[in-house]
Amino acid sequence: MSVYTALLNRSVAAGCSRVWGAAPRPLLHIRSASVAEPGTRRSDDEQLWEASSFLPFSRARIGSFFQETPVLKNPFLEDALLRGYLRRHLPQGAVLSDLCAFGERVAIEVDKWGRECEVNPPRLVHFDPWGRRVDHIVTSPAWKRMKDLSAQEGLVAIGYERSFGEWSRVYQMSKLYIFSPSAGLYTCPLAMTDGAAKVIQSIGVSWPVDEAFSRLTTRQSERFWTSGQWMTERQGGSDVATGTETVAVSQTDGSYKLHGFKWFTSATDADMTLTLARVQDRTGATTPGSRGLSLFYAEVSRDEDGRLKGIEVQRLKDKLGTRQVPTAELLLDGLPAHRISEEGRGVPCIANMLTITRIHNSISAAAAMRRVVQLARDYATRRTAFGKLLRDHPLHMQTLARMEVETHGAFLLSMDVCRLLGQEESGVATQLDTHLLRLLTPVVKLYTGKQAVAVVSEGLESFGGQGYIEDTGLPGLLRDAQVLSIWEGTTNVLSLDVLRCVARTSGMVLHAYFTHVKSLLAGVSSVSTLAPAVKAVDGALSQLQMFVQEAATREPGYLDLAARDLAYSLARIYAGALLIDHACWKEASASDTYAALRWCEQDLCPVVTKQARGCYDPSTPPLDSALVYDQPAQD
Ligand code: UCC
């Protein structure tokens, strides 16, 4: 008797067939094996075959249990906070029905395209079969469908049609929020396209960009263009003022040719781009620093031989995430371009683009959190462990609830910046609103970008090992989230941007901030369930005010060290006030109240906590440095 048959006999005797739910057939096999005719010897192979036909986990049999997969349902209908927010601020039936229909389309159709973009990433074809240089970036059919869909659904256009006045940006960004986690990163070209349209509109130049503006903001898919934003060169993407080497050589017709090397160009299959370069004078000299940078508009086109005009695509980047997006290194070798800013005003001009892309980034961050929470909570209704569904495990629910609180905060922060943008664009913003928008754009971008990584990572854990398996699509959420704190300004660069805008406005942005947070808290009754949250935000706000007053008297460098914690404090206090305000709305749910209370239990003002620990004292930088470069003791 083979070892397998022996094991099987023991198993049958122990009644394992019932446990495995095995059909009677295998039992017949084992009986026939044990009552073989005397003298007829069965080969080991035959015995093994019989045994394996009984085992539920052998050869073609892989067992009968399959875990149910998490199901993506209509992301609009599934999102109580989004729907509540819109019912409160933008209750027009047309908006709600458009978002509902789009949510259905995302769940049923678009999400699959997004997945296809991931598994069929772009590739670069340098040469045609006969050796001619062509530099074709080949993208998937799904990526192209995303472009058509973006035009038809008005994902950029809504922001410029302004059919809903000051709330048009909230409408547009709500749609992008629903789209983003299923978009296969098509939100990246859309962010830059929106940013380019904003720049063109702000500078008020017509030729040669009027046609471009109309194409960037059209709903007609055959006319729709996307734009690039080529800012990063080999010396880096943060210190644009020093890192930009590209030169612009003026031509007799008033146009320019650009020569340089762009090190990170996202969504390089774009139809046009905005980029920075230094205009050369007659001697070939350029002005260094920010004051030497001008903004240029260039179309990406091909000559009659099919070669890109003035561009060579060196290679596509091999990235941790955003693999759906073609990101390239480009040699600009006489790229025809038009200067669209005044000479030397390139950075302030492109700053408009950065405002828009940073807001898109915040929306994508909140959307990534929302998606992982939606999937995790669905999964918790399907997955049984230790005898009950995950949703019946209090610790698991506590973890999901904490993710939900973060998502609530990120959503309200991001939407509030969209609200302010919409007000500014429709001419109803007060000076206070404009200051708030300038301050909150980097604050919200940096905070939500960082939190998205944490929440999505936690979310993956709620699927156990399956969260780590590529073809579930879950790891891609984390890989794609990681970029949110890097591109469009890293956390530290944006923290310093916060200080810069405080300094440039002589503190007016902070005045606007304090005034607005107080107004959000003003209407809340002291006996309300929300009283502990109000007390926490109020207290943190006073602490922050004192910190700011005191920090202004400190030595240079003190605030730089505090910049990140200051930005976090600004974000947490502001989100706390927004959560309280939303929970006070007459149709708010009990969950809105609970989210506000939970949010406000955290350290809302880390800059004061860390200040009390001496974290920004002059002794800190050398200690930090010594810690980082700690050397092993000498023998
Ligand atoms: O390109 C990239 C990836 C593309 C993909 C995008 C997809 C996004 C998708 C999202 C959804 C999925 S990554 C590369 C991105 N690079 C950056 O973000 C740059 C980061 N660095 C900075 O932000 C720096 O702070 C700089 C470059 C702005 C600093 O330059 P300067 O020249 O040193 O800045 P200054 O001297 O502080 O400011 C120069 C002028 C001033 O105006 P004036 O001269 O009128 O006083 C500033 O007020 O620019 C103005 N300015 C701003 N205005 C500077 N920053 C801003 C701002 N944020 N908003 C308004």
From TrEMBL:
Residues 229-333 form the Acyl-CoA oxidase/dehydrogenase middle domain. Pfam families: ACDH-11_C (PF22217), Acyl-CoA_dh_1 (PF00441), Acyl-CoA_dh_M (PF02770), AidB_N (PF18158). The lineage of its organism: Eukaryota, Metazoa, Chordata, Craniata, Vertebrata. This is Acyl-CoA dehydrogenase family member 11-like. One of its GO terms (molecular function) is acyl-CoA dehydrogenase activity. The keyword Transport does not apply. Residues 508-629 form the Acyl-CoA dehydrogenase 11-like C-terminal domain. Keywords: FAD, Flavoprotein, Oxidoreductase. Belongs to the acyl-CoA dehydrogenase family. Its cofactor is FAD.
